[in-house]
Amino acid sequence: MVIFLVFGMWVMVVVVKGKTGNTTSSSSRMHSVVNVGALFTVNSVIGRSVKPAIAAAIDDVNSSPTILVGTRLNLILHDTNCSGFLGTIGALQLMENDVVAAIGPQSSGIAHVISHVVNELHVPLLSFGATDPTLSALEYPYFIRTTQNDYQQMSAITDFVLHFDWKEVIAIFVDDDYGRNGISALSDALSKKHAKISYKASFTSGASEREITELLIGVNLRESRVYVVHVNPDSGLEIFAVAKKLGMMTSGYVWITTDWLPAVLDSSELPDLDTMNLIQGVVSLRQHTSSSDIKKSFEKKWKNIKDKETSSFNSYALYAYDSVWLLAHALDKFLKSGNSITFSYDPKLRDTNGSELRLSELRIFNEGEKLLETILTTTFVGLTGEVKFNEDKNLIHPAYDIVNIVGTGVRIIGYWSNHSGLSVAVPESLDDQTAAGMGFPNNGTPLRVAVPYRYSYKEVVTKDKSPEGVRGYCIDVFEAAVNLLPYPVPRKYFLYGDGRRNPSYTNLVNSVAQKPVGDVTITTNRTRIVDFTQPYMESGLVIVVAVKEAKPQPWAFLKPFTIEMWLVTCGFFLFVGCVVWTLEHRLNHEFRGPPRQQIITIFWFSFSTMFFSHRENTVSTMGRFVLILWLFVVLIINSSYTASLTSILTVQQLTSRIEGIDSLISSNDPIGVQDGTFAYNYLVRDLNILESRIKPLRDEVEYVNALRLGPKAGGVAAIVDELPYIELFMRYTKCEFRIVGEEFTKSGWGFAFQRDSPLAVDLSTAILQLSENGDLQRIHDKWLSLASCSSQTTQVEETSSLSLNNFWGLFLICGVACFISLGIFFCRILCQYLRFIPHDEEAHDHEIVEPASQTPRTGRRSLRGISFKDLVDFYDRKEAEIKEMVRRNKRHASRDSDEHNSSPS
Questions:
Q1: Contact predicate 451/495, CB 8 Å
Q2: Are the beta carbons of 102 and 145 closer than 8 angstroms?
Q3: Which positions of the chain have pLDDT values less than 50?
Q4: Considering the entire predicted model, what is its pTM?
Q5: Signal peptide: which range, if any (predicted)?
Q6: Are 718 and 672 in contact, with CB atoms under 8 Å apart?
């Protein structure tokens, strides 16, 4: 009875399925047709490329003799019309046809809605265009992203922004799930690198030109000029049309877009000139797809597709094509494993009274979970490269082309991948190399170590016949550091370069994914590509020049002072001598005598103060004040002269036209650099020295010959190289040449590893331990110890003569003091002369007594009666005579007063 009941129920199920147009079988061999759904907006930038690509993929699968033999895929397409609501309706309609999987959608917002439907019905959803990072959440188990994740794209933008040391950006994005969640991923990526989004400018999908104009006006008022535009490809160009009108597409503005812009440009074989004029200078990211034969074959097939609306295709078409093939490979594996395709009704889906939605017609794909697992474990090589998922259900090896819009075309300026970061190398070449040597802690695969095969300075690192195949200072440091690690690291060295010239260290860092070990200088640009360990050798660029002995100069004793300084100094000696003589003449007998003797005294006193050997004593207060100040000035001048002359006669024994980096830049002489090092790029890019002046040199012999020849004979005026190499060079030449100036860069040597390599951190700790226990110094002394050139490494900078500018303050103080003293002295003399000098004494004895009404005579004279000759005669008298005359005048005045009072009235 039970058997008959079960049989009856099975018949009813078959009948019901027949009525709805669906067939179900329990045997895999009976599935001649499998329904596959497709959901995307047909009339869109992405949809117009994707539609013919999916159709071509279905045809290629159905005509393939090696996959799904006896089973044909039936494509059922529904247009979502960029609407979440219509997309949901389309998804429900697809589910009525018992599809085993759905391809699409392209919109992240619609993908969020549809994911709930496929979760309920257990139908895998393979999206070639939904890049929203949040769709990877466990909330959407049946959502499979067959394109790149925006989280990786925002990491690429972050690395590009930080490459130029920009710390703030402004995000312009469409306000939906795709825009908001993408910019949120950008904010997270920037914050990890100590940068940030300074302002978020959002607008709704379908915003008018006026709204976009207001948005960009507000953006333009912000301080940052670096803009990241994350919008939909169908409306994104409106941003640049408005920006151009506002003058925001000129120099000084940086525009970076996500992969929507290349999706627009790649859809047309011939670029639209009006569009290209709008986006000149814009930098954009494009999903990287490897170049392969099957991709070239698809490009040829595309030209023969008739039902297509675009002359070319974008990367989303390639991912859609691979999505169909991914499903085909998974279904082939699924069916060959003996699995059947069956559907069953969900009792939870019931029609409500009066509803025409017919939810009860929707059925669950019973084997959906098994097919999902099969899809996630399927691996094959498609148009986009290797298709394989990691544990987070994301495609492995995410990579992007970095393109720049220039002229009428798109130029690739670099690449980004999640394992190498920014690079000028194609990501596939780095993928293959990276695969070797990454699992050394677990499976013992040797760590492949790249060693520069040098032509010169082989003490640093070079080829060897030992089992390791290499030797040198850098190798010993690396081996010592590795031996300190708490885990074994199997390693294998291989040489980079041919040994006939030094390899390019920039190419070594950029192109070799294996860990470079050697004299690799840590520079800012290189740290953006790889991770460096703690520096194990301090370094910096220095200048080496050829020098010659200076000829003896018989008049070198005059060099400490300039001509103006000598003239002013001599003039002040005479001036101070005259001032002191003037102040001392009336009081000091040593400053009196015949005119000839007085002139000799002035000269002798003046110049004897130079050696503090003047024999004349000063007795006046003003004279002593002036002399003290002058002796202080003489002390400073003597000390400065002695120091400058000592420097000229002892230090300045060598001559060179190049005195340091400033004189090297200002000259037009050729400069030698070591071949392969970063010095060439540093001089050209950072110091703006003409490339024609730079001459690469291979080894020490070329160094010597170039310096000896000099710039006039085809050599160089100076060599710029790192200090460790120059120290070895000085030992090689027995200190024949000299270092001038100071180190003008500060850097170091370190071991380079791929980004985020844990080995870089562990080796840094080991290097610090080597430094602390002294092993690092012992290794240095073993390979790089050298005879000291300190006795001859004299700076050859020209000693400048001391000018008047160095001492005018002292001369000013001394001169002011002299003039003040003279002023006080002559005022005192004039007062004495006006008040106390009488009329002629003989005339005084015979003068007539003045009437009583007149004022008694006191010896005063008016200014009109002053004679210069009388004033000079008065000054020439001794102070004692003047004082005696003062006393005599007082007595005369007193006597005259008494006589006048006693006379009868």
A1: yes
A2: no
A3: 1-29, 433-444, 513, 652, 791-797, 839-863, 905
A4: 0.54
A5: 1-18
A6: yes
